[in-house]
Amino acid sequence: xxxxxxxxxxxxxxxxxxxxxxxxxxxxxxxxxxxxxxxxxxxxxxxxxxxxxxxxxxxxxxxxxxxxxxxxxxxxxxxxxxxxxxxxxxxxxxxxxxxxxxxxxxxxxxxxxxxxxxxxxxxxxxxxxxxxxxxxxxxxxxxxxxxxxxxxxxxxxxxxxxxxxxxxxxxxxxxxxxxxxxxxxxxxxxxxxxxxxxxxxxxxxxxxxxxxxxxxxxxxxxxxxxxxxxxxxxxxxxxxxxxxxxxxxxxxxxxxxxxxxxxxxxxxxxxxxxxxxxxxxxxxxxxxxxxxxxxxxxxxxxxxxxxxxxxxxxxxxxxxxxxxxxxxxxxxxxxxxxxxxxxxxxxxxxxxxxxxxxxxxxxxxxxxxxxxxxxxxxxx
Length: 380
Fold this sequence. Notes:
Blueprint: E1 3-4, E2 14-18, E3 21-26, H1 28-35, H2 44-51, E4 59-60, H3 66-71, H4 73-76, E5 83-84, H5 86-102, E6 118-125, E7 138-144, E8 149-155, H6 169-176, E9 181-185, H7 197-212, E10 218-228, H8 230-240, H9 243-246, E11 257-261, H10 272-279, H11 283-288, E12 302-307, H12 312-327, E13 333-338, H13 346-349, H14 356-370
Parallel strand pairs: 8-9, 8-10, 10-11, 11-12, 12-13
Antiparallel strand pairs: 1-2, 2-3, 4-5, 6-7, 7-9
Helix pairs in contact: 1-2, 7-8
C-alpha cells in the first residue's frame, strides 16, 4: 500500500512515495485537485492548480481566471488576505460540484413541434450599431405557422455579464408547439457596458417586436416578457419602471404580462464589487434599477416564480416583490415556488412535457391572451 507524507503548509511541495520511492512532486493545490471528487475532465481545482504560477500553494487575484477574479474572488477570499488558500479553494470546488450535480442533462420528455409547424428567423438586427461585433444587437424569432399568436420576449440570464439568446432554443420550440411565438434577445453586457444599457436594449427589442410582429403573423397586442435570473430582473424592471418603454412611445400596458423567474428585485443587495461595477454607488440609481421600488397597480399582470433551492435572499426578494404589488392593490399577480428546482435548472426543464414551470407559464399566457379585462387600466 502506498505511503503518503504531506509536509507542513509552509513547504511549497509535497512528496508522494510508493514503497518509499519518490515518484512525483505536487503543490498543495494540485494535491487538492487530485483528492476532491472529479468535477470534470478540466475541473475548477485543476484549472486553479495550473494557475499557481509561483508555486506558493495559494492563488492571487491575478492568477485566477479573469471572470472569477471579477465576480467571485472577493466572496471566495473569506479571510480577506488577498489570496485563496487550500480551504477557500476547496469551498469553491464544493459549491461548483453541488451546482453541477443539481443541473439536469436535459428536459424530461421534451415537447417538440410537429414537422413544418415552426419558423425560425435568427440574428435579426433590432438595434443598428455598426460597431457591434458580438451580436448584442440581435434577436431570434421562433414562430408558429399560424396567425394572431401571442409572443413571449425572452431575456436570457447570466448576471448581466454573460449569456446568449441561443440558450432558449429547446424551450422556445416547446412554446411554439403550444401555439406561442418566442423572441429571444441579446443585449450588451458588463463590463463593456454598465447600467442602464442592458434595460435600454431590452426596451428597444420590445419596441422592435411590437412594431414588427404583425408582419410575421403575430398580434402586437399580445406581447409578454419573461426571463430567468438576470433576465427575470430585466423583465420585471421593464414591466414596472415605465420610463424605459416611454423612450419608444410605449407604455407598460403594451406588455400583456411579465414572467420574471428567480429575478433580482433589489440591486442594493448585490455584493459590493458587482453592484458598484454595474450600477455605481448612487443609492438613487439602485432604487431606479430595482423592480421592488416600482411595484404599482398599473403594472401589467405578473407571474413570479423562483426555485425551491434558490438562495434564501433570492426567494425573499421575490416574495417581497409579490407583497409590494399586493400592497399597491395590483389585481393580477401570482407567485409560485418550483419544487426540486435550482436557480440554474428551471430554464432547461421548461422544455419538458408536464413541467410545472412550463404549465404555469402556458396557463398565464392563455389567461391573459384571452381576457382583456385582465389587463390594467390605461395610464393617464
